[in-house]
Amino acid sequence: MTHALFLPHARLDDLIRQVQSAGYRVIGPKLEAGVIHYAELNVAAELPWGWQAEQTPGRYRLHRSQQTLAFAWAAPAQGLKPWFFAPVEPLWRLRRTPDGFGLEPCLPDAKPIAVLGARACDLAAVARQDRILEHDPHYQARRQDALFIALHCTHPAASCFCTSAGTGPRASRFDLGLTELDTGFVLEVGSPRGGKLIEPLALAGATADQIQAAQTAVAAAAAQQTRRLPAGDLAGRLAACIDHPRWDAVAQRCLACGNCTQACPTCFCHARRETASADGQSAEHSRHWDSCFGELHGHLAGFQVRPQTAQRYRQWLTHKLGNWWAQFGASGCVGCGRCLTWCPAGIDLTEEVAAVLGEAPCGR
User: Which whole-number Å values give the CA distances from 48 to 33, 89, 158, 171, 286, in the listed order?
Assistant: First the structure.
């Protein structure tokens, strides 16, 4: 960080107004229904000032902090996936015409969004989904003009392991990057678009002390993380452990509820459905999020290919940490820890993969 600006807390509204005037909807963290999640923002006062989030396996609790900061908490409850890859998406409609039927595409006509406070793990997840859905017109319609104002994380949760996943806590691939200090933000420009956006704000340069404090805070966030994933492509190692007894052991706890896949910012499994109108004049073909833990998801050619919970958990973990490398050139896990936090049984992915790869020889 050789050159940076300083954005006082009091001028955060100026940044938001500048982004809005450029034609964006501003999306950022808000406290609603007992969680911090990404939602549409109008003013800086809607940010979760003075809150911290305790996140451990199977537990999420908000607490008031002695520091009145906007971002003194870890990853929001849900990632950015719903904003680009909608949970329910009509793909096309069929309407009866005098000559038969007419097909109508259902591409979204959405105003571009700017994400304020995008975490490193969530930006990494967007990059993963860019690879997966690069030819999906519905995803691209929402994604192509998005602007990212990143937040370099300084307050990780106990469930975080982005450092070992190689995705954070410092973000990459952003238009503007923020690191929060007690009185404001050290601001970095990450793209020409970001630089042009903040020109009218005429911000002063950050001091050497402010830059050092920002770097120290991010480094401390990395050092605080105690959970780890094994490094690199795990496909071969996991494939060699397909009969490890740990799969049956974790299945005794797993409810196959799919919470982990719904909270995961990279999971992309989905199902297709057709719905006809009551008068028979039209029908709609839609896409819905699905989970590899669901019984119907594995029902192929008249039978269930993974009837046991152990098989479903093994499929999820070995695909995400192993087979993704061959398909997409990276792990499917960005270390956000949401699968730990929102698992009602408190199952810890990092603990399970360590047990499978590091206990007794596989298959015994």
Answer: 13, 30, 19, 20, 35
pLDDT tens readout for residues 69-106: 999 999 999 999 999 999 999 999 999 999 999 999 99
Using an 8 Å Cβ cutoff, are 48 and 77 in contact?
no
**pTM, to two decimals:** 0.94
Contact criterion met (CB below 8 Å) for 91 and 106: yes
The one-letter amino acid code at 141 reads A
Long-range CB contacts (within 8 A, 24+) of 30-36: 31/62, 34/62, 35/60, 35/62, 35/76, 35/77, 36/62, 36/73, 36/76, 36/77
DSSP 80: S
What is the Cα–Cα distance from 245 to 289, expressed in whole angstroms? 30
CA–CA dist 147, 41 (Å, integer):
14
Instruction: Say how far apart CA 73 and CA 101 lie, in whole Å.
Output: 52
Model confidence pLDDT, tens digit, residues 304-332: 889 999 999 999 999 999 999 999 999 99
Question: Please, what is the end-to-end C-alpha distance for the chain in angstroms?
Answer: 50
Q: Give 65: exposed, middle or buried? Use CB within 10 Å, 0-12, 13-18, 19+.
A: middle
